[in-house]
Design a protein that fits this description.
Structural class of chain B: alpha/beta
Radius of gyration of chain A: 20 Å
Largest sheet of chain B: 7 strands, mixed
Helix content of chain A: 40-55%
Largest interface: A-B, 27 and 22 residues
Order of helices and strands of chain A: HEHEHEHEHEHEEHEHHHEHHH
Distance between the termini of chain A: 30 Å
Oligomer: heterodimer
Shape of chain A: globular
Shape of chain B: globular
Chain lengths: 331, 432
């Protein structure tokens, strides 16, 4: 595995391997010194051409906990605003000698182009409306923690599917892991064609609520309202929001998920955001070990064949010797 | 005076084919003899090849003035000659736009000494902005015969009606008509779309342009041609629905002509899965069903002409994410080979699509499009139908290299091109 550009390139076995590896890194996280020297000497660039505090911080932490050197490159301080071609920018970064480029870009496919122009590993940290594979991995991880397996589980993804990289990645990840996925939203927020998507469409959220193992709410952006894709926030909430009364119809063991940041009072009522079934913070917590697992798979020793056992042993051995580099890394 | 004989080839034009030599006089630029054994000072070997009327492209961006880093009239006409074209209609979307006598005159100046005839078209509206008619009469007097707001299309139906009526009332020196050529796209519906809207755009997370954005304007312009009685030419048809609309309009006798590009009969939207903007073009690459419909439209005469929509872009401008890169692909150097490889049509039909019909539409029939007979201007292509070669972006005469066909094996190559009696391409090499 050279790059991680989308969930589509992983089969079920590879997904499970990364998620198992993430579980062992989660164990490392609970230690007093949550750091291992697995990627010591490796350099990782966070190339965020689009702002994202959450994802960048999570990747940053993940890389540091593996003892990689981390360099930040943000578009606002770069030449991309001066009309430089993306290729020039990427070749400039690569020329400094880096092992991985973690790319966030507002344009779908930008990481795929970058992967064609550099020898470094490219990790897609979200591209346009296309893919956000580590989000799908951390969401899968969160569900697996609760359910043990996704086989036969029923998950609804509700909201703005068309403009959501999270939805595209999650549909693939959840179904590959055995779940049944239902998409819910007005036609204006669904992709124009769902040919080949392993999903069912359900126009009515209320019709499926009691059957769900998890409901995954997507963030509604103000921009979609101004584009005339739905009449008003009020109507959106009334039809597609997880209101308190809808939450009451969800099973007691169902999960309420959201990629964050939540629009309370729009796609989710404030009380529901505080519901014990809402695992938004667990999702965030899962982000670091999942991203450690991805970085380790791509850059780690014997990366091509990293097995669960090897990773566990690595984590074990590393935790003993981490004291010499462990200080001041969190935060 | 030098007499040049094209020897050993099979001469093919609308009247049929025969094995004979063709002798031209480079001083007059005309054919002097058709028949074997005529005296000549020089020969061009055409053994195993066909001698056909030079091709005519109704649709090429030569980028001059304004973007000479991507193409110039000189480099674009060289690419055209290598593709067997003896005339290209230059699109007006230059910088500044070809909407005035000054800019058209500049292009005509550059065209002198070019390796093929460069026939400027001009904008229908000032700045292609859709608000005010260009000085159509003044431009007709300069020799412009095709007007187009290529790149956007005239959005306002009333403006298009007036343009048709006004241009339709122009009187030309040769007595032929002026033609309005439309880029069919209702931008209110295509807005923001960077590829064909469908299964691929949905998967790739790219905004799409629905086929209907093109078809609505095709339908509208057919209605306007019916209303005004003035001929409209529809550029680069790309959808099955557009082909069906044009077929029906022609059956009803409306004065409509249409063109299609090699990329729209050879590539589908699946190519965009690489996110390589070399496959970004407007109208976008469509589905396999659309490709089949375009091919059928070319085979049954619904679509009159193959036009390239040659659109050079510098490498750096395509080294951007798919949605940010400019649309457009190269076409001049590969059009004949792709038509010969993909369409499964006899050469006589390819000559109709690449030469005779576009020459008629562009008002160039007095000197392009055949027939090949004594006294006619010697604008000829010599093609080898069996020559198999691989398209290579590094081997383009165009100043740009954005061919979507890089690495594709094709059959059929232009061996020689003769423009006004001068051999401008000899054995696949441009003479200057």
């Amino acid at each position: 595995m050279k790059h991680l550009l989308g969930i589509g390139e992983l089969d079920r076995g590879e997904l499970e391997q990364i998620l198992d590896l993430a579980a062992s890194f989660a164990e490392v996280q609970r230690r007093p010194i949550p750091k291992v020297p697995a990627l010591r000497g490796k350099t990782v660039v966070l190339a965020f051409f689009e702002d994202s505090t959450r994802t960048r911080t999570s990747f940053d932490l993940a890389a540091r906990r593996l003892s990689a050197d981390v360099v930040n490159f943000s578009a606002s301080s770069s030449s991309t605003n001066k009309g430089e071609s993306l290729r020039d920018t990427v070749e400039t970064i690569a020329a400094m000698g880096v092992d991985a480029v973690i790319v966030r870009h507002a344009s779908s496919g930008a990481p795929h182009r970058i992967a064609a122009w550099t020898d470094a590993s490219v990790i897609n940290a979200g591209d346009g409306w296309h893919q956000h594979p580590t989000q799908a991995l951390l969401d899968s991880y969160t569900m697996l923690e609760r359910f043990g397996s996704l086989d036969g589980r029923k998950v609804a993804i509700c909201g703005d599917i068309q403009h959501s990289r999270v939805a595209r990645s999650n549909v693939e990840a959840f179904t590959k892991l055995g779940a049944e996925v239902v998409l819910i939203g007005p036609r204006t927020l669904l992709p124009p064609s769902l040919d080949g998507w392993p999903v069912k469409i359900e126009p009515d959220l209320d019709a499926v609520l009691p059957d769900l193992d998890a409901v995954y709410l997507l963030r509604i952006q103000q921009e979609r309202l101004s584009q005339g894709l739905f009449p008003s926030i009020r109507e959106y909430r009334a039809r597609y929001g997880l209101t308190r009364s809808r939450a009451e119809r969800l099973r007691s063991d169902a999960l309420i998920m959201h990629p964050g940041p939540m629009n309370r009072g729009v796609e989710i009522d404030p009380e529901v955001a505080g519901d014990p079934r809402c695992v938004v913070l667990d999702q965030v917590s899962a982000g670091v070990p999942v991203r450690m697992a991805v970085l380790f798979r791509l850059l780690g020793p014997d990366a091509a064949a990293a097995s669960i056992a090897a990773a566990a042993a690595e984590a074990e051995a590393a935790s003993d010797g981490a004291g010499d580099t462990g200080e001041g890394q969190v935060g | 005076m030098t007499r040049i004989a094209i020897t050993g080839g099979i001469v093919l034009d609308a009247s049929g084919e025969r094995r004979t030599d063709v002798v031209v006089d480079d001083a007059t630029g005309r054919i002097t003899t058709i028949g074997d054994g005529a005296q000549a000072d020089r020969t061009l070997d055409a053994e195993g090849c066909h001698v056909v009327p030079g091709f005519v492209d109704l649709h090429a961006q030569l980028r001059q003035p304004g973007n000479e880093a991507a193409e110039t009239v000189a480099s674009g006409s060289r690419a055209a000659a290598l593709g067997g074209f003896t005339a290209v209609v230059a699109m007006p979307n230059t910088t500044p736009c070809m909407d005035s006598a000054a800019v058209v005159s500049e292009v005509l100046d550059h065209a002198r000494g070019a390796l093929c005839e460069v026939k400027p078209s001009a904008a229908i509206t000032v700045g292609q902005a859709g608000q005010t008619l260009s000085p159509i009469g003044e431009l007709v007097d300069l020799g412009v015969r095709m007007f187009t707001d290529d790149g956007t299309g005239v959005q306002d139906a009333q403006m298009m009606r007036r343009a048709l009526e006004y241009a339709g009332s122009m009187v030309t020196d040769e007595g032929g008509p002026v033609v309005l050529s439309q880029h069919c796209e209702v931008t209110a519906l295509s807005q923001g779309g960077v590829m064909h809207e469908g299964a691929w755009s949905s998967r790739l997370g790219l905004a799409g342009q629905p086929a209907e954005a093109e078809e609505l304007m095709v339908a509208r312009d057919i209605a306007l041609s019916r209303l005004t009685g003035v001929r409209v030419h529809l550029q680069h048809l790309s959808t099955a629905g557009s082909v069906a609309l044009v077929r029906a309009a022609k059956a009803e006798g409306h004065p409509v002509t249409a063109e299609a590009t090699p990329h729209h009969f050879s590539l589908t939207d699946a190519a965009c899965a690489s996110y390589d903007p070399v496959f970004k073009v407007y109208p976008p690459l469509r589905t396999a069903g659309d490709v089949e419909a375009i091919r059928n439209g070319l085979r049954d005469g619904t679509i009159d002409a193959i036009a390239t929509d040659h659109a050079p872009h510098t490498p750096d401008s395509k080294e951007l994410p798919f949605d940010k890169a400019p649309p457009g692909v190269l076409g001049l150097e590969s059009a004949f080979a792709l038509a010969n490889t993909e369409l499964d049509l006899p050469l006589a039909d390819l000559v109709t699509l690449l030469s005779t019909s576009p020459a008629r539409i562009a008002g160039l029939s007095d000197r392009h499009g055949g027939p090949i007979e004594v006294g006619r201007p010697a604008n000829l292509a010599v093609v080898d139908l069996d020559h198999v070669w691989t398209i290579d972006r590094a081997q383009q005469a165009s100043r740009s290299s954005n061919t979507p066909f890089h690495g594709r094996e094709v059959r059929g190559k232009v061996r020689h091109t003769m423009y006004q009696g001068e051999p401008v391409v000899i054995d696949g090499m441009a003479v200057r």
